Amino acid sequence: MDIATEKLDLRRSFSLSFSYTMTARLERWNGMYNRRGDNGQNNKKIRAIENERRIDHLRNIVEKQTRTERHLEEHGHIPRSRENMEHVKKIQEHRENEIQNLKNIIAHGDQNNKNQLENTKKRFLYAEGYLNNNAEHMDRETFKNTKAKQGHRKEQIDSLK
Hints:
By secondary structure, the protein is mainly α. 86% of the residues lie in helices and 0% in strands. It has three domains: 1-31; 39-110; 112-161. It has helices spanning 3-34, 39-74, 82-108, 113-134, 140-160. Mean pLDDT is 78; it is low at 14-19.
């Protein structure tokens, strides 16, 4: 067997093994998401796994926060720099916010009304500016659709307040 034939055989075997590996991965992926139309069941499994991870993360954050609070209570008499104490307070506030966010996600799903309100206001303002600057360059249908979307955004902002 000459070198060219040997190289060709190596490429073929690599290609076949790579193809087999990718096919197996795709089958597993598709099996998880598209098995016999059971997408609802698979989505529930995925959500359950995500919530398990969130609960573990929540538990870890609460433990860290509790340890820090206990440490501050037990060793509060030890003098510390002002910057260090401010840093600890910022970390604790961040942990509090993260705990509340995880609680909301676990209890109510992924949507957070505060972020949704802020995002909707931002989209409303950007679209309003776009309409003010580009209305004369837009066709009638696009302008009409954008105005309708702006009306829906305004209603959504009012309902989220």
